[in-house]
């Protein structure tokens, strides 16, 4: 029995050693995937300079080019509303008619007071002229002449006061007809017929807004303002300093507004809390598509940068000092790290103005596995509009090999 057990143990040990030997031999024959000792396969695109538009997308809000809140200048009851809500009115059109009974009476009383003052002035003038003639022959005393002169001056003053009262009464009577101070779209009336309104009340009767043209208030940082000014002044954007920049709008539903606008003014003050400033653009709005209060996105066209390069953002990284860097495939098929200068972005690309030249092969895929000086195998790939390489490197290499020469 002991002999049989000893023989079984020896056989088990032999099988175990053989199995381990076979496994070790198999592992020794397997290499790392992709062949770590060979060149690293990367995807590249060839760079070519081109004119690149320089623009900025800014958030904005539509505001009316002019707004007037209509308030009564006299007290009274609303007798008639003379406009249609939501329609256009012209400057001077009657909006409301107030009850004018007491104002007509006040005007008549002021008119009568003026006539009375005019009569008193005429009498005082006749008395003064008569006494003046008599004083020349010493028929009356100097005191009498002075009294006549004083009476005339007082009568003239009373007449001027009566004229002012009549003018005030006329103004109050005219103010019972409340007119539009500006032309534009009239909103909803806040009062109805029969309502009592008060002179210079806080609440407006109705609001009028001029909606053609309209303004769009945009907000941008002061840093961008200085950068764009410097580029225009240096002539790098192909636009003369002071020339208006065209602006296009994207509405809230994503639709492009069919008309372009121009910058009309920029606020002269930068916000101390946000470091931003306001820019106002003007747009024609004959169809009333742009409504005050609406949010939009504006694209401001500053010009174009000649001989710039569009480098996919996926290919750009930052070093420890914050400089933008890329990998290029050298003529010797080695990875070469390069510093670049960027000037904003366009879609999913950085706008590069320094650090690359025409014909450079930019590594856009596989750069995670390389460093400066790594031996590489460059395969031409493409980058779609979303900044994605749609095909794998192996598929791109196969397509390259199958292309007829």
From TrEMBL:
The keyword Signal applies. GO terms for molecular function: transmembrane transporter activity. Its main location: other. Keywords: Signal. It is found in: Cell envelope. InterPro entries: MdtA-like_b-barrel, MdtA-like_BSH, MdtA-like_C, MdtA-like_HH, RND_pump_MFP. Residues 307-368 form the Multidrug resistance protein MdtA-like C-terminal permuted SH3 domain. It holds the Pfam family HH_MFP_RND. Belongs to the membrane fusion protein (MFP) (TC 8.A.1) family. This is Membrane fusion protein (Multidrug efflux system). GO terms for cellular component: plasma membrane. Residues 67-208 form the Multidrug resistance protein MdtA-like barrel-sandwich hybrid domain. PROSITE patterns: PROKAR_LIPOPROTEIN (PS51257). Residues 1-21 form the signal peptide.
